[in-house]
Structure prediction request, 497 residues.
Amino acid sequence: MGDRSERGSGKHRRRTTISGDAAAHAKRSGTTETLSGQVKEKEPRHETSASKQKNHSHAGDDTFSCHKLQESLLSSDSGYSNYRGILNWCVVMLVLSNARLVLENLIKYGILVDPIQIISLFLKDPYSWPALCLIIVSNVFIMAALYTERKLSVGTISEGTGTFLHSINLAALLFFPAITVLRVTSMTPVGGVVALGVFTVLFLKLYSYRDVNKWCREIRHAKARTLSRSHSCPSVHKANGTTGYTHVTYPGNLTHRDIYYFIFVPTLCYELNFPRSPRIRKRFLLRRLLEMLFLMQLMVGLIQQWMVPTIQNSMKPFQDMDFTRIVERLLKLAVPNHFIWLIFFYWYFHSSMNFIAELMQFGDREFYRDWWNSETIPYFWSNWNIPVHKWCLRHFYKPMLVKGVNKLPAQIAVFFLSAFFHEYLVSVPLKMFRLWAFLGMMLQIPLACFVGRFLRGNYGNAAVWMSLIIGQPIAVLMYVHDYYVLHYGSASEGVAA
Prediction:
């Protein structure tokens, strides 16, 4: 009993001590002690037990929650756009599938690439260079345009006479090389394409040259004042080592240096003062040159190894009118043809044009836009070849609108002009007229109407790609078949040859 009472009194004393310590601490911390011995703040800061349970419940929800409102990544509403992995997968699959085709081609035909054969595509006789001679003769037409403009600038001849002389010169630019290619037997088809391509570019350039100088005369007459002469594009070396160019005014641009600079720069639209780059970047120039050489060899190799056997094997189905085999040959030809076309685009519009522009210090490098994103046919034709598009817009389409022609007939006229030059560059070198290229370009008009009306977005873009991949092989097979029939009597004989 004594021990129990002592223990009870000890507990009491300990409680009292603790309570006393708590009271002292509460006094120091600004709290009060209730009658039950609990310490309480003057302004309670602790939450009640109910609020504690509620907050703990919300904290548990936030901690263990794993769902939220969101769309699947492949849904259009998700806003997700980083498909680089899928693009890489497509590239890998494309490489693997075509590696199989390459291996199959090598097993079936062996190595057909012959670098020496490239020379025979341009020359039949090593002592006869008709295409090069024809290109050299083009200087006559350049000088004719320059001296006609000089006569017009000083008023020696009237505007009517100048227009007549320019018309004769421009017409000769198209008919003279065409007649030469048709009549000269030593002219190869490839040499004829190169020569006619040069004359076509020259035709478009001199047409622009004539228009711009005419506009300058009209402005001069409208302002009724004389502009001082100056040298055309003379270089002035500055103290910091860079090269500056003086501003050229009409008729100071009518010099040999000016017109030949325009002839060589990669543009079809003439200006008195072109944008100029400050210097020639030698590394950039070297990279473009290496690309040009490599891609040229690659294209020729792919044509020899891949396209030629496929085309030769396509002649028999055409002769037998076996439509199933024709479609199979068409689809088989579409893959190498499209690859070569893409390589040609990069070789010509990026490597070659940038090389020439860098060498000539030509500043405007917009030779193409994002035609690969085309969702309509007109967008593709407006963005894959910017020099031609600018020329058509500046010298053909807008002048027609100014004369009162509606937009739709003007657009059809642009397609008609493009179809004419496509046929001109194919039929004349092959020395046969079948109008397949012309019809292919004119069929772009109804196709553009269909795609623009019924297809949108990715579907329109897929339709544009399908027209590029399938349309070109059809024209290629048509021309090759007709060429074999015309020169060898029948398609089968052409294959045997």
Residues 208 and 269 are 6 Å apart (CA to CA). The mean pLDDT is 80. The two ends are 131 Å apart (CA to CA). The first strand starts at residue 31 and ends at 33.
